Amino acid sequence: MTLLVRPRGATHLLVLAHGAGAGMRHVFPEELAAALAAERIATWRYEFPYMAAGKKLPDRPAVAEAAVREAWAAAGRATRLPAFAGGKSFGGRMTSQAHAAAALPGVRGLVFAGFPLHPPDRPAITRAAHLPDAAGPLLFLQGTRDELAPLRRLRPVLARLGERAELHVVRGADHAFAVRGRADTDVIAELAVTTAAWMRRIAP
Questions:
Q1: Phi, psi angles (nearest 5°) of residue 7
Q2: Sign of CA dihedral 164, 47, 42, 147
Q3: What is the reported pTM?
Q4: CA separation (Å) from 173 to 178, 184, 187?
């Protein structure tokens, strides 16, 4: 199951994977796709097999990574835009793991909306161990209240990746990018504007 949103005059494409607990039609990817469309960025959304089957437990990494590759190939056949890959939390991590294992052909860079360094209440950085092997530019969109990736742990990880890793911090945002006293649509617009500008710097 896939969903292409291609605005008129689209300049780039983001192949966008959903998070662990909600599918491609969840409000977050839905609103992010709309906000990116306003910036003339097309999106190709898809669902991991467990979500398409109505299951709650995410797929094993090998299965999820295969789904990433299948979606990437399908998006490439359907569009001819400079393409990036990534996703929300679990979806972004599975995308980078797939790319680290064997490069996604032609990918210009990866976008992470809330990279999950560790599970809840189990602080670690082991989930980032593959990132040095995920070649190319990396954009991390992270909130200051993200309980799965505290900035004090994330910043050293990104520093070791060098200049190819860029961090955009959303003040007051948790892992779901909720900010107290700020409309969700405003926060998502910030993510979209930041992502679009970064894409155009990477692939003018």
A1: -70, 160
A2: negative
A3: 0.96
A4: 5, 10, 8
Which residue's entry shows tokens 């835009």? 81
Dump pLDDT digits (tens) for 145-184: 999 999 999 999 999 999 999 999 999 999 999 999 999 9
Its domain, for residue 160, covers 2-202
For residue 60, count other CB atoms closer than 10 A to its CB: 11
CATH code of 125's domain: 3.40.50.1820
Vertex 97: Cα angle to 140 and 193 (nearest 5): 25
Question: What ranges in 20-81 are assigned the alpha helix state H?
Answer: 27-38, 49-52, 61-78
Residue 78 token pair: 């359907």
Confidence band (pLDDT; 50, 70, 90) for 123? confident
d(CA 101, CA 123): 25
The answer to whether 88 and 29 have CB atoms below 8 angstroms apart is yes
Number of independent structural domains in the chain: 1
